[in-house]
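Quick question, first post here. What does this chain look like in 3D?
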Amino acid sequence: MAEAKWYVVHTYSGYENKVKDGIESTIANRNLGDEICEVMIPMEKAEEVKNGATKQVERKMFPGYVLVKMIMNDDTWYVIRNTRGVTGFVGPGSKPVPLTDSEMRALGIAAEKAEAVLSVDFAEGDSVVVTAGVWKDTVSVVQKLDLNKQVVTIVIDMFGRETPVDVNITDVKKL
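> Answer (accepted):
Ran it through. Tokens below.
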């Protein structure tokens, strides 16, 4: 059986949520859960200043696009392509092109294989020491751990202020 891959679907602007809901209901109605695995709208956190107040909001990373993890065949292509609000797949002509592993990592979506291989012996809140790079020999506390991007965020003291810094996960060792 073929492997499910991530594809980018182009939608009318503002229809991303409707397209996602439409695809998910079609998956349930036609029992396509084995072939169309996941539908997502990539979101990012941003700060928005309104009336002098700053607040955290979530924005679509790519307005007008939805990501679909699926096994490409005639049936799944037809279901996605004929969902209301979908204008087509991203790719030359009518041939969809799957995202590469590096493109998926850049979006924060890790391949299952990468997660299985990488395991760390520390977690958020643990004390660690940086073993390489600019921050070598810096002792700090893990603030955030992102296995998908293979990055650990530590807090360092810079100019008298606590500053979060991202370090490659392989350059950190638990104390």
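Residues 112-117 have pLDDT under 50 and may be disordered.
Helices lie at 16-30, 74-81, 101-106, 112-117.
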